[in-house]
TrEMBL record:
Belongs to the RecO family. Pfam families: RecO_C, RecO_N. NCBIfam families: reco. The gene is recO. Keywords: DNA damage, DNA recombination, DNA repair. Residues 1-77 form the DNA replication/recombination mediator RecO N-terminal domain. It comes from the Bacteria. This is DNA repair protein RecO. Involved in DNA repair and RecF pathway recombination. PANTHER family: DNA REPAIR PROTEIN RECO. It comes from Sporolactobacillus shoreae. The keyword DNA damage applies. GO terms for biological process: DNA recombination; double-strand break repair.
Length: 249
């Protein structure tokens, strides 16, 4: 029997009564656990077998699928779960974690990044900014870390820049012709991308970014993941719909 702190990043129904939960932990990385009886309302596991559960879990780590026996919540993430926008951004964060990691490969730095990002959203720090910072930092994990400090071809540090999806970074005005599909970037986006890559989470504080700017960053991030990691996240679609809704208000 093993006890470990973790966050549930996905659940799948299994049969009439059970769920398979995907738990992300510091010690073991991502693991799949059968939560027997979790679909029965009276089961002890029913209240904890949901995405964003964060707590101490008692489980048996089998060779393939293990078994979850008990869990005790550390933070119920009430604010995240009560706000549709925060839920959407948190969903993006756990979906990225799930899609970009392999089973049973411990990566304590990533666990801390995931946990601390969710905790900051729960404390009320801007969820859109945090999700973009998380997504930019995860590019390194995905092996597609872009060059955002200077032009990827000539090293020029002076903008304006365009963002080259195929080149993997920014291109200055002299070099932008090398990628006719490079995306235009406003100076704010060019300034924020390197900041998002480097800033430690505990220093985000009350960073404020205009709605349009965060929208531009989200579009670049989504296109970059699609082009270079081959993944199109379900949560992006939801966030896109939310932003259209906001624009109409
Ligand atoms: Zn250049």
């Amino acid at each position: 029997m093993t006890k470990a702190e973790g966050i549930i990043i996905r659940t799948t129904d299994y049969g009439e009564n059970n769920k398979i939960v995907t738990l992300y932990t510091s010690e073991f990385g991502k693991i799949g656990l059968m939560a027997r009886g979790a679909k029965k309302p009276k089961s002890m596991l029913s209240s904890i077998s949901h995405v964003f559960f964060y707590g101490l879990c008692l489980f048996n780590k089998g060779r393939g699928l293990g078994s979850l026996y008990q869990a005790e919540s550390i933070n119920p993430f009430r604010l995240i779960l009560s706000d549709i926008e925060k839920t959407g951004y948190a969903a993006l964060i756990v979906e990225l974690t799930d899609r970009l990691t392999e089973d049973s490969q411990p990566f304590p730095g990533l666990y801390r990044l995931l946990r601390d990002t969710l905790l900051l959203i729960e404390k009320g720090t801007d969820a859109a900014i945090l999700a973009s910072i998380f997504a930019v930092k995860m590019m390194k994990v995905a092996g597609i870390d872009p060059e955002v400090d200077h032009c990827l071809r000539c090293g020029n540090e002076a903008g304006p820049f365009k963002f080259s999806l195929s080149g993997g970074g920014i291109l200055c005005r002299n070099c932008e012709a090398s990628d006719p599909y490079a995306l235009p970037m406003t100076p704010s986006v060019a300034r924020l991308l390197p900041l998002f890559k480097k800033i430690p989470l505990n220093r985000i504080g009350n960073i404020s970014v205009r709605q349009e700017t965060i929208g531009e960053i989200e579009s670049i991030i989504a296109a970059y993941y699609e082009r270079n990691a081959g993944i199109r996240l379900r949560a992006w679609r939801f966030i896109e719909q939310l932003s259209h809704f906001r624009a109409k208000e």
